[in-house]
Amino acid sequence: MNDNRTRLLRAAADLFARKGFHATGMSDLEKATGLGRSSLYHYFSNKEEMLFEITTRYLRELVALGERLLGEEMPAEQRLRRFSRAVMRSVADDLSELTVCFREMHAVTGDNRQALLDLHRQYEGVWGRILSAGFDSGEFEETDSLSVKAVLGMHHYSYLWLRPDGHRSPEAIAESFCDLILNGLKRPRD
């Protein structure tokens, strides 16, 4: 991605997370990035286009990673742990974007809103398929949509307290989550 575009998206995410989408003006973005208004409009036609990119970029990356993991032969526990670590690393690295996604998703309208909702369903579906693959292989107990929502909530609501100066790395937090999840999922060995 272009450096100016990346810088603009990071600045917009930080501003939207702190001030809110509607309270952030183009002049705020100009000041934060050092780019003029015409440069801003060169990269995005409007603020909502920026918001859509912010709320979907990390989801697209995680869906692609989840699909790759689902296509690889590996034990279900390993797949779950790898995806969990990647999600928590994304939450930590993209904290502003995730905050914006949770707080400002309602501001995305029209076709972009439908695309965002579809992407959320795809992402949730990746988690569901990871858990189902564990059941299919005989490693996990059967799960349902409530289980998937619980796993999603565990990972994504961590954004409320995850801090760069925290005592545990995102990967260590993911391991704790997986230990907790797997205690309920693993099938007892005969």
Automatic annotation (TrEMBL):
DNA-binding region: 25-44
SUPFAM superfamilies: Homeodomain-like, Tetracyclin repressor-like, C-terminal domain
Transcription regulation among keywords: yes
PROSITE patterns listed in its UniProt record: HTH_TETR_2
Keywords attached to this entry: DNA-binding, Repressor, Transcription, Transcription regulation
Residues of the HTH tetR-type domain: 2-62
PANTHER family linked: HTH-TYPE TRANSCRIPTIONAL REGULATOR RUTR, HTH-TYPE TRANSCRIPTIONAL REPRESSOR KSTR2
Protein name: TetR/AcrR family transcriptional regulator
